[in-house]
Write a structure and sequence with these properties.
Shape: elongated
Number of strands: 0
Number of domains: 1
Low-confidence stretches: none
Distance between the termini: 19 Å
Strand content: under 5%
Largest sheet: none
């Protein structure tokens, strides 16, 4: 699988992922909404760490700039 996520995109994904995981611990909400936020947060963090995004692959988007 080819890397498609650039540095800025990567940092934004990781930060938003952490925020989404922390939100359920500070606000009261239903169990389903908590689970959805945590799952989305984990997905964002994992795609940020691995720099691989299946949606970017399907859409042909590439923000990763390889060093020459």
């Amino acid at each position: 699988m080819e890397k498609r996520i650039g540095n800025l995109d990567r940092m934004i994904r990781i930060i938003i992922g952490i925020i989404l995981i922390l939100i359920p611990f500070f606000f009261s909400m239903g169990a389903v909404l908590k689970a959805i936020l945590i799952i989305i947060g984990i997905i964002l963090i994992l795609t940020g760490i691995t720099r691989i995004c299946f949606l970017y692959n399907l859409l042909g988007i590439n923000t990763y700039k390889a060093k020459d």
